[in-house]
Amino acid sequence: MAVVITTEWMKNLISYIRLKKKTIVKFLLVGGSAVLVNLSLLYFFVEYVGLNTAIGENIANVLSMEMSIIYNFFLSRAITFGDRHKEHGMRLLYQMVKFHVAIGIIFLMRMGLFALLQWVGVYYLLNAIIGIGIAAGFNFLAYDTKIFKHRVEDV
Fold it and tell me: Has this prediction a pTM greater than 0.90?
């Protein structure tokens, strides 16, 4: 299956980016801080906890990713999409589940990519940065359109 990028598709993408410019900036700032949390924890687990084997680095990667996901959810909810309805109770739990499902899909991609890049000898921190960068675009679309979307009564 070939992916074809048409002129119309590019125009729509540019319009979407212009429309979402402020939200994208907040997303990048919040996401950037989550990257720092992720990489700091990864470094801590590998260098100080002693998870410095091939398997240990993968375990450290999983732990640091999950901790940064929880951090990212609450900052995204408060800052990036702070203008949107705040869910409470079971709806908040459901929103967190949706957030984790979206992240989970990207997580699986990142795990495969991490193992592949590790196999070809990419340094573990650079490896994580590459995965984070690829995931960012997919995450923004999921957060904006599915997880923190405007409710009808918000518009």
Answer: no
